[in-house]
Amino acid sequence: MARIATLIADMFEDCEYTEPAASFREHGHDVVHVGLQAGLQVWGQQDHTPVMIDLSTASADPADFDALFIPGGYSPDKLRTDAAAVRLVRSFMEEGKPVFVICRGPQLLITACVLAGRKVTGWKSIIQDIANAGGIYTDREVVVDGNLISSRNPGDLQAFNYACLEMLS
Amino acid sequence: MARIATLIADMFEDCEYTEPAASFREHGHDVVHVGLQAGLQVWGQQDHTPVMIDLSTASADPADFDALFIPGGYSPDKLRTDAAAVRLVRSFMEEGKPVFVICRGPQLLITACVLAGRKVTGWKSIIQDIANAGGIYTDREVVVDGNLISSRNPGDLQAFNYACLEMLS
After folding, report:
1. What CATH number labels A3-102+153-168?
2. What ipTM was assigned to the predicted interfaces of this complex?
3. How many Å apart are CA A123 and CA A35, to the nearest integer?
């Protein structure tokens, strides 16, 4: 069973966290919340879902995890200014471990400079940012490129969850 | 006196709208709110400042305005998915009319593909996006490059307002 680092901060899109996390746990995987400060509660932007941060980005060791999951909303915008969060993302991508991003999740891949030549999708507001980072944007519900799985929005969650579970199995 | 198109949507950073707008009006300039839908009320993300949209992006004619002002917060993220908003921004930049952006305002310049070779600053989360768009990011309270004035955050407002008024005088 996989141990999944879930990189999350305030203003995450609730269902883009709750639905994949429930699906991961249902299949026996372990969801660990990694954020700006351990012990801090963060909140979803629509339904105010509370999430307790288990581990700070600075103290999270990529070697302790099998996969990385980045929910969307404005949470990625808050995390990309944190150097430790960016290092963590870069490490998972460089080691080729599974990385699951949805909505504005690719913003963290852009700041980590790991999108060049990679096929990826995401929320429509960041399409130009993805292209400028060298990513190959595709308007599909789920895009799988090697270790990287991406989706656009809550409407894609079923396909996203299925693809993520497939990669972990 | 100048007629200033203020491009604004929900979740703008309150003071990044209220302080420049007050300063513009105090000096006799006209502040017109351009947004996704005329007659719609939009709200600031901190203090819930209400702003009534005067004109939709689709019906705003750049020829009717002397300058463009884009407050920050998450408002620019919401506006950059609107083709008419992006066209409006591109038009002001191509005509060399004054363009004032703060915080995440440069996101609209990125989607409009008008940042290449331009000196600009902005909120720290979008530094990599600015660089990938060919912009020359500078970490200063206010950056003036031709018709384009930019600042980083609320702490820069005094310098931002001063530079904008100077350009309009």
Report:
1. 3.40.50.880
2. 0.96
3. 22
